[in-house]
Amino acid sequence: SSSSSSSSHHHHSTSNSSSDKSNSKDKPPDDGGTAKMDRDVLVCSRYETAMATAYSFLSVFLAKTGSKNEEIDYRPLFENFVQDLLLTVNKPEWPASELLLSLLGKLLVQKFSNQKTDVALRVASLDCLGVVAARLRRDAVTSQLKVSTIDQIIQRVKEAEDRDAPLLEDGSAMLNSAPPQENGLPEKHTSKKHKKKKGSHSRDEPSSSTSTAAASGGASKDVEEERCKFLQRVLLDWLAVNAESDVALLHARHFYIGQWYRDAFSEILRQKMGPSIITPKASRKHHSHQHRKRKKRRGESSSSESDPGSEEEERPEDQITEELKNQVKALAEARKLFLLTKVTAFPPASPGARTQTLQTHIGYDDAELITRYLASKRSFSQSFDVYLKQILRVLTESAIIVRTKAMKCLTMVVEADPAVLARTDMQMGVHHSFLDHSTSVREAAVDLVGKFVLSRPELLDNYYEMIAARILDTGVSVRKRVIKIMKDVCLECPDFPKIPEICVKMIRRVNDEEGIKKLVQEVFQNMWFTPVRERPSLDEVTLLRKVNNITQVVITCQDAGLDWFHQLLQSMFRPKEDKDDVTKIHTEPPKALVTSCKQIVDCLVRNILLLEENQPAQVNQTVVTLEENSSGGTTESASKTGSASQKLVACLKTLHLLAKIRPQMLVDHAITLQPYLALKCQ
User: Fold this and answer.
1) Of the four listed, 14, 33, 94, 283, which is most buried by Cβ atoms within 10 Å?
2) What letter would DSSP give residue 146?
3) How far apart are the C-alpha atoms of 485 and 506, rounded to whole Å?
4) TM spans, by residue (predicted)?
């Protein structure tokens, strides 16, 4: 509870500082230039004071979680606090959550990246950042679906405002003849009507309002910026109307105004260039650039707290052309002027008239969607890449506990969005951990890939070689995990071309330690030696796929010999105790095993006859060579390119292996097979 109170207290203090600014802004400016500068300095310094407060609060709180000298354990409090922030972020009435999370992210990266930090605090920071990064990723995945919804909300609000338009008719006429003053609107009582009409008017016909467009250098023609301004207005009005029942919402309003005002340039720039080009880091650099200019005006030194990530300044500037910069400046100026008109929520003279002067046409859910949409323009919502890179960076750390924790963080992120595994930096990081000298890290890495690779078959190609190599891992737990993943691949992606190779790799573990031996038997029991459906009719497709798979494995095993395969069959049919004791009477193998082998034998014999029917010339050659396909092609390529003779020999070899283990299965087919005794193999 103490954590929540500090959070809400923080919102108030931040917002209070912002609310002071509304009073000072209502004073008319002396002259354009200095007023504009002072206004910028005023708003930005208020907001940056709030940032500094937030930053010092978080620094102290985080330091307490890692301190051994505290009487109480601050860790659960801090974890709860972070959960509170994640619950309230992007909720319209908690605007400071996003700022706190943004600063917290930078702080956590600082802590766990610094090797001098105490290990316990590094691990805790890493864990916390993993939670935040996973949440960011989840939000990014879900909010992609929301743009159409946003347009529907805008449409609804506009229709509702058009219905109310007759009430505002005079106001709109006045608006066109006399543009509002820079420091707000001239007359208190009608101010809200003007604003209402102004907002919907400029949003409805961005192209027709040529006078405003000319005035702001073509700024109002930017469709996305118009959409944002419209949504900002609607959200501020919603907060003002609802502040009747909850006064704290007025502080939230001022916080939003201060934040949107200060960050207008960087948000619009990111909007223009797209998140792929202007990274969160780049936009921060631009802030710090402007921020330093303002500080210089006031003759102060730039404060490090407000921007912990501003050391690399130059790069993104190269990508920003002068033309784009001017265009963004004009749009940012237009946004700032518009925000200033919203500072006073209600005409103070007549509080009784609130409902007439200000209406809101959205409910809480819409307000939340709008908040999310506007937040997606800000750097925090796009800071996932930065966080992920920092987590990947510590995979090369010397402390095992830190590397293991980093793997767990990545697992949280991939749970939120398996597509992250397709990223090149992610693949490199995971590959590095596959070769880590700690078994626990390797197991965590294999586990991470195994969990999610099946949900995205396209990822299988990227990770197959890495996983396959780990079947020879020195750690038993790692080998077991790999075999389980391979089994899932065989069962869930039956068309994956490397399945014969996977089977061979698994069969070769048949003499491994007891636990793995048992696992391998279970895998093949499920895959090959479980009967297929016979009633109402035989499931030909599954049976044929299974038999093709087995013959492919036999072809692939060619070079290494078929001993492994024989041992596998032996372990299935004759459990260990029977083999050791010669005097023991052989117990009958399980009925299901016999049935499935009988189905396989029948299918193989049918295959042999079909092969002979279709390509008698090839089959009747007395010498059959096997070298061509010994490397093991795919099932398809074998059926298209592998010669009939190769397939024939594979079928006969498989029958031979089954006959060695249980001859009675071939009795019915003895006459059919008799002519093949004359074949010579090379």
Assistant:
1) 14
2) G
3) 11
4) none
Provide φ and ψ at 318, rounded to 5°: -60, -35
Listed ranges 26-35, 91-100, 137-146, 199-208; the one with the highest mean pLDDT: 91-100
- Asked if residue 252 has pLDDT above 60, the reply is yes
Residue 676's DSSP bridge partners are none
Give dist(CA 394, CA 577) in Å, integer.
50
Domain extents for the chain?
A: 37-165+223-275+321-347+358-395, 527-578+586-615+641-681
Q: Is the pLDDT of residue 18 over 50?
A: no
Helix (H), strand (E) counts: the chain? 32, 2
Tell me the pLDDT tens digit for each residue of 328-363.
888 888 888 877 777 776 644 454 544 445 677 788
The torsion defined by the Cα of 618, 624, 627 and 628, in degrees rounded to 10, comes to 0
Q: How many residues can be counted in the chain?
A: 682
Instruction: Give pairs for 513-517: CB < 8 Å, separation 24+.
Output: 513/476, 515/476, 515/480, 516/476, 516/479, 516/480, 516/483, 517/571
With a threshold of 0.85, does the pTM exceed it? no
Contact 108, 394 (CB under 8 A): no
623 strand-pairing partners: 680
Q: Based on the number of CB atoms within 10 Å of its own CB, is 73 exposed (0-12), middle (13-18) or buried (19 or more)?
A: exposed
pLDDT given for residue 433 in this prediction: 93
